[in-house]
Specification:
Blueprint lengths: L11 E10 L1 H11 L2 E2 L5 H11 L5 E7 L6 E4 L29 E4 L5 E4 L5 E6 L8 E8 L1 H11 L2 E2 L3 H4 L2 H7 L7 E7 L2 E2 L23 E6 L5 E6 L4 E8 L2
Antiparallel strand pairs: 1-14, 2-14, 3-11, 3-12, 4-10, 5-6, 5-10, 7-8, 7-9, 12-13
Length: 248
């Protein structure tokens, strides 16, 4: 395979299967005839997925939410791995006290330490821009939910600020001096897992899923009447689906 990774090399192809199956039936079909149900690692993959499906009905992809797993922290920016031994939580955090909605999204205190909060709350947020040579970090002074903030950053910049390297940058420290707000950044956690065991953190949910429950025993479908954004549905529903062929 060489030194390239899933998100950089197209060593796989997506295949639209126009047969209505439950998610488990679709998974079995893909594993028998191809590699597995589709895994999506970034927006480039998402565009290819849209093309392969040809704007058809909702289709199953390889993301599911099992009952018996713990929530895992991820970074929003694809390719940045979360390391439990390299964190900067504020004292006492994460608290996860947002009953009945768990606290699954991160925000920054003025001193750049982290805290968790409910993703449905609206805050300023921090975007990262890898193509801007003069300004990498942007404080967006608009009140949005975490998911709305993620969509904004991906549409107008690169993504929410993610990873210790970005969070320790002097440029970001200067940006934070300009506000007394406590903005969102690219930290989130969930219980969703990929069928092929990949650890990719990429998510492309519809913006009305901010209050979704976890360990829901549901599966993810790409909704092509909503630009391919994902929604959760009962795994027993029958839908067409997308497999991938690949060599990992």
């Amino acid at each position: 395979m060489g030194q390239c990774c899933f998100s950089d090399c197209q060593l796989y192809e997506y295949l639209y299967i126009k047969e209505d199956k439950t998610w488990t039936e679709a998974q079995q079909y893909c594993r028998e005839k191809h590699t597995d149900l589709a895994t999506v690692s970034n927006m480039r993959d998402m565009k290819r997925l849209n093309i392969s499906a040809g704007g058809q009905r909702d289709v199953w992809i390889g993301l599911y939410d099992p009952k018996d797993v713990n929530r895992t922290w991820y970074w929003s920016l694809p390719g940045v791995e979360f390391n439990e031994s390299e964190t900067n939580w504020n004292t006492g955090e994460p608290t996860d006290k947002g009953n009945p909605v768990s606290e699954n999204c991160g925000f920054l205190y003025k001193n750049l330490t982290w805290a968790d909060t409910g993703c449905q709350h609206k805050r300023y947020f921090l975007c990262y821009d890898e193509t801007n040579k003069t300004q990498k970090y942007h404080l967006i002074r608009e009140m949005k939910t975490w998911q709305e903030a993620q969509s904004y950053c991906r549409e107008n910049h690169t993504d929410l600020i993610s990873g210790l390297k970005q969070l320790q940058d002097e440029e970001l420290k200067n940006v934070m001096k300009s506000t007394d707000q406590e903005p969102y950044f690219g930290l989130f956690r969930d219980t969703w897992r990929w069928s092929d065991g990949s650890s990719f953190s990429f998510r492309h949910w519809k913006n009305d899923l901010n209050n979704q429950q976890y360990n829901s025993d549901q599966c993810a479908a790409s909704a092509f009447n909503d630009e391919g954004r994902w929604k959760n549905d009962s795994c027993d529903q029958k839908k067409p689906f997308i497999c991938y062929n690949g060599d990992f």
